Amino acid sequence: MNSQTVIRLVVTFLIYLLLQIVVLRNFVFFDVAFCFVYIACILLLPDEISPVWVILISFLTGLLVDIFYNTAGVHASASVLIGYLRGYIIKFLFPTKGIENEIVISLKDMGAERFVRYVAILTLIHHSALFFVEAGGFSFFLITILKIICSVIFTSFMIIILQYVRGN
Fold this sequence. Notes:
By secondary structure, this protein is mainly alpha-helical. The chain contains seven helices and two strands. The protein has a two-stranded antiparallel ribbon. It is globular and about 45 Å long.
């Protein structure tokens, strides 16, 4: 990874975090559809980054959101979970069958169907962990499931729109 790629990642990271903290924090539909576009910072990391770095970046991303949302590690824990599972999901969805080629994670390079599948699965995992930890268990199961489904659709849609706007 060259310095231009690192700078581009840092700028993208800052844009997504600022967008989440400043704009999307209060962007909620009917108290059930929340948009957590900051997870795109984790989802769009290059495949060549070490899993340890992905988990560390995931933790720091979630921690920054926790600081501004005044939540006690809920976002950090959900972010670390998807940071950990990200490599396994990539291997599951995009098997290379022995060919050593690199996967570029973007809408342009993966195609719409593969990218939507990748984003939807990891967003579902993130939101499930986030909302069940927030609910404190399974006592509010139906409303939690409703929040998860609506928020996965909303967040995935926003990540895809931002990929179209970004141009890759």
